Amino acid sequence: MAHNLQDTVALLERTPGALDELLRGLPETWTHHNEGGETFTVVDVVGHLIYADRVDWMPRAHMILEHGENKPFDPFDRRGHVEECRGKSLPRLLDEFRRVRAGCLDDLRALNLQPEQLELRGRHPSLGAVTLSNLLATWAAHDLTHLHQISRIMAHQYRDEVGPFGAFLGVLKCNGHGG
Amino acid sequence: MAHNLQDTVALLERTPGALDELLRGLPETWTHHNEGGETFTVVDVVGHLIYADRVDWMPRAHMILEHGENKPFDPFDRRGHVEECRGKSLPRLLDEFRRVRAGCLDDLRALNLQPEQLELRGRHPSLGAVTLSNLLATWAAHDLTHLHQISRIMAHQYRDEVGPFGAFLGVLKCNGHGG
């Protein structure tokens, strides 16, 4: 059964503002360090959210409406944020996320999707059949998985600073689960 | 060695605004459901953050400055938010968090703590000796562990809605790690 699209939109429209309030002007201690190796910084995550809005969610929604299961989605480039971020400050990326997200939501609202359309299916290149409802619900859950990641990346920077209190901080025990 | 207190304050002063942007007006689907059993809703988490600001962080900082290791901190009541939340709407709790946090940060700034004071030690009832630096760094990391929890509680509400995409969403694999 299709989910409640209003709940999804309510979250999607709040994420850019929430990240702006959390991150704008924050010292680079929090925003420009990663969790080691090839992991993302907070800046990378914001770039990834912009890139995913540009190439993934609404383009795939249009694919479902136009081609159904006949044509698989283009695969998503998990390093696509690298070009997206190049030469841009975090404040600029936050401005861009707000603008790109607002444009995507205008596009979504203009479709005026009806419940039966949410049941339409598309073809994901590795997951197989997914509904338009699954895709749009995942757009919101994807914001949340990256908010989860941002809080974990930031907490990681204080791993030593918290001393014995680390035993009580669940976020420091999170292994990332791949994102 | 003591950490950079400016970094901690920069985060602490942004959390209430970030939660306000994320949560105010959001449908109850996201904010009034938990992860099952006795787990917290998003509303409970905001109540817990207010309660911890009232009874935990700055009161313990004052304990360290006044009594050092001679007197252990009062134990923290993990159900203290229940009374804190009773009869209050989420918007009211968000207003209250903003006000209580601002008051705590005024109190912290008024102490004008010097690096050598951050090395002072207090006694935690179960963890033993902790420094004032550890305590204040943990205040910031505690905001992050609860932002991590909020994103996980919210994502949990879409566990079924995302369908096959759940395989790609790290936040749905997070087991909470106790908070």
Report what the structure shows:
The structure is a homodimer of 179-residue chains. The first copy, chain A, is 57% helix and 4% strand. The first copy, chain A, is mainly alpha-helical and 179 residues long. In chain A, strand 1 and strand 2 (128-131) form a beta hairpin. Chain A is elongated and about 55 Å long. The two termini of chain A are 27 Å apart. Chains A and B meet through helix 1, helix 2, strand 2 and helix 9 of A and helix 1, helix 2, strand 2 and helix 9 of B.
Chain-wise SSE layout:
Two copies of one chain form a homodimer.
Chain A: H1 5-12, H2 15-23, H3 28-31, H4 42-55, H5 57-67, H6 81-85, H7 90-111, H8 115-118, E1 121-124, E2 128-131, H9 132-156
Antiparallel strand pairs in A: 1-2
Helix pairs in contact in A: 1-9, 2-7, 4-5, 4-7, 5-9
Domain DinB-like (chains A, B): 12-150
Protein name (chains A, B): DinB family protein
Pfam family, one (chains A, B): DinB_2
Proportion in helices of chain A: 55-70%
Mean pLDDT of chain A: 95
Strand element count of chain A: 2
Question: Which chain pair shows the most residues in contact?
Answer: A-B, 62 and 62 residues
How much β-strand is present in the residues of chain A?
under 5%
For the termini of chain A, the CA-CA separation is: 27 Å
* Rg from alpha-carbon coordinates of chain A: 18 Å
Q: Count of DSSP helices of chain A?
A: 9
Major pleated sheet of chain A: 2 strands, antiparallel
Oligomer: homodimer
Question: Which ranges of chain A are low-confidence, i.e. pLDDT below 50, for 5 or more consecutive residues?
Answer: none
Query: How does the helix and strand content of chain A classify structurally?
Result: mainly alpha
Q: What is the ordering of alpha helices and beta strands of chain A?
A: HHHHHHHHEEH
3D shape of chain A: elongated
> What is the strand arrangement across the widest sheet of chain A?
1-2
Domain DinB-like (chains A, B): 12-150
Protein name (chains A, B): DinB family protein
Pfam families (chains A, B): DinB_2
InterPro entries (chains A, B): DinB-like (IPR024775), DinB/YfiT-like (IPR034660)
